[in-house]
Write a structure and sequence with these properties.
This protein has 213 residues and is an alpha+beta fold. Strands 1, 2, 3, 4, 5, 12 and 15 form a 7-stranded mixed β-sheet that branches. A 6-stranded mixed β-sheet has the order 6-7-8-9-11-10. Helix 2 packs parallel to helix 3.
Length: 213
């Protein structure tokens, strides 16, 4: 199973569509999803809430038919795909502020509130723009938020193959992740979004090739 994640930054064009198709994923965890996104051959479920005009927080896309489930948090889409509970998420970042859907006075508090709501939904595949690196410098989220997030992922029995994947910025680690059951065997692909037309997004894309045991 190929599971990919990418933050579209609210953009969509033929170049974006061609890039997504080139990832050749069975499941996509997309974030900052423009309502203009069209991916024929994939079933889709996006968050009810918008993060900006005509931009959804997150979406789950699948080659297999999916069953939409209630959003466990305003910035998380959840769906049942081939027996898996799949969640696509945006987590708080330092400048996200306290407006909906975030609750709390600090990045750490807002992260804890969102993560705990998602954990209650018990996803078996979880990813998206988690706004936390799992190694090295923490430049987007908070170190306390990182610790809580890692503890939650471990409690769900998941692993994060993308933890060591590079960020688009040299010397940093990715904040976009895919978590899958700890028993699965995995390999990771990092896909640069730099094209002849320029950067398609300020995030690169990541694909986890996963094989259940």
């Amino acid at each position: 199973m190929r599971i990919g994640t990418w933050n579209l930054a609210g953009r969509w064009s033929e170049a974006h569509r061609a890039f997504v198709v080139s990832l050749d994923c069975d499941v996509l965890l997309l974030t900052e999803v423009s309502e203009r996104v069209r991916l024929p051959g994939l079933f889709a479920h996006t968050t009810a809430a918008t993060m900006a005009r005509r931009r959804r927080w997150a979406g789950v896309y699948s080659r297999d038919r999916l069953s939409p489930l209630a959003d466990p948090h305003g910035a998380t889409a959840l769906a049942q795909v081939d027996g898996l509970r799949v969640a696509s998420t945006v987590l708080p970042w330092r400048a996200s502020g306290g407006r909906a859907p975030w609750i709390g006075v600090s990045t750490h508090e807002r992260t804890v509130e969102a993560v705990d709501a998602i954990v209650d939904a018990a996803p078996t595949v979880w990813g998206g723009d988690l706004n936390h690196a799992f190694l090295g410098r923490e430049y987007s989220g908070s170190l306390a938020g990182r610790r809580h997030l890692l503890s939650a992922i471990e409690g769900l029995g998941l692993q994060v193959p993308t933890a060591q994947a590079p960020h688009q910025i040299e010397g940093l680690f990715s904040i976009d992740h895919v978590a899958v059951p700890a028993s699965w065997t995995t390999t990771v692909e990092h896909h640069s979004t730099l094209r002849e037309v320029g950067r398609l997004s300020d995030h690169d894309a990541y694909v986890v090739e996963a094989e259940p045991r």
